[in-house]
């Protein structure tokens, strides 16, 4: 990991942040696109890597295409991208749980893809995209019964956004998309004519994609680290292309898998996987 150059979107906190810290600890260089770089002013861990030159902060917003372009430019030749943009829904008296804007994640991803750099002497970057379990009709059926109301009501708006995000990924990666099994995409999410957008990679041209669909996220500890410290051979979490029907996974364990997957790309690259305890 010592020579790995990573570009991170949505990494000011949560999975993206924990993944970036783990990579920095392994000697990687990480460029963060941040709306407020001051968010790291009192972060002792990140400040240490800023001083060493391994953490680089670019001020900007992934919802603005010019900012994602600048992030790519300033990062240099990128080996890996971590995309973990997300937001929390808010409750509206007449509309229920809503997300503003409704297509935040989807449009940020399209900006990242449309400004993605190509390198004559280097391969495409490995791209790890954080999504969610329970998005598709088939995945929703496999959810634990107690979680179905949460996913069907509270998380409905952000999940519509992530379905659009996954549809865009499938288009660029050349993966099949069936509206009955993968889910319909509302027009307001991707926007009319999105496939013809300037700069969008042609269908099937992106071959180094990994979509991670975590179960319900918690702020718990990294069970994988604790198991390793105790010398336990048991895997702390489950990862599968099949639906797992699990209840939850911590953000720190998800970040553990993000970094692990980068070192085991032949096993996980070009897939959509679920992760849960």
From TrEMBL:
Which GO molecular function terms does the record list? Answer: biliverdin reductase [NAD(P)H] activity; riboflavin reductase (NADPH) activity
Q: Sorted alphabetically, which InterPro entries does this protein's record hold?
A: NAD(P)-bd_dom_sf, Polyketide_Oxido-like
Which SUPFAM superfamilies does this UniProt record tie to the protein?
NAD(P)-binding Rossmann-fold domains
Q: Which Gene3D superfamilies match?
A: NAD(P)-binding Rossmann-like Domain (3.40.50.720)
Residues spanning the membrane:
none
UniProt cross-references to PANTHER family, sorted A to Z? FLAVIN REDUCTASE (NADPH) (PTHR43355)
Q: Which family does it belong to?
A: Belongs to the avfA family.
**Full protein name:** NAD(P)-bd-dom domain-containing protein
């Amino acid at each position: 990991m010592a020579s790995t150059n990573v570009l991170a979107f949505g990494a000011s906190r949560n999975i993206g942040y924990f993944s970036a810290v783990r990579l920095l600890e392994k000697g990687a260089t990480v460029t963060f696109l941040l709306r407020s770089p001051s968010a790291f002013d009192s972060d002792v861990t990140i400040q240490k890597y800023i001083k060493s030159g391994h953490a680089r902060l670019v001020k900007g917003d992934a919802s603005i295409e010019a900012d994602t372009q600048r992030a790519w430019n300033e990062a240099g030749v990128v080996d890996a991208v971590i995309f973990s943009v997300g937001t929390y829904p808010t409750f509206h008296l007449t509309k229920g749980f809503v997300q503003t804007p409704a297509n935040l994640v989807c449009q940020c991803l399209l900006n990242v893809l449309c400004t993605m750099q190509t390198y004559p002497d280097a391969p495409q970057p490995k791209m790890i995209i954080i999504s969610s379990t329970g998005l598709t009709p088939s995945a929703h059926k496999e959810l634990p019964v107690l979680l179905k109301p949460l996913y069907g009501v509270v998380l409905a708006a952000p999940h519509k956004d992530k379905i659009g995000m996954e549809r865009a990924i499938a288009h660029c990666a050349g993966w099949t998309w069936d509206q009955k099994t993968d889910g319909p995409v509302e027009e307001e999410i991707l926007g009319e004519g999105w496939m013809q957008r300037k700069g969008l990679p042609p269908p099937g041209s992106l071959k180094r994609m990994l979509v991670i669909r975590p179960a319900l996220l918690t702020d718990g500890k990294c069970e994988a680290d604790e198991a390793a410290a105790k010398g336990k051979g048991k895997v702390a979490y489950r990862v599968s292309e099949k639906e797992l029907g699990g209840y939850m996974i911590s953000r720190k364990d998800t970040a553990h898998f993000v970094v692990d997957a980068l070192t085991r790309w032949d096993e996980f690259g070009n897939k959509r996987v679920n992760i849960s305890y």
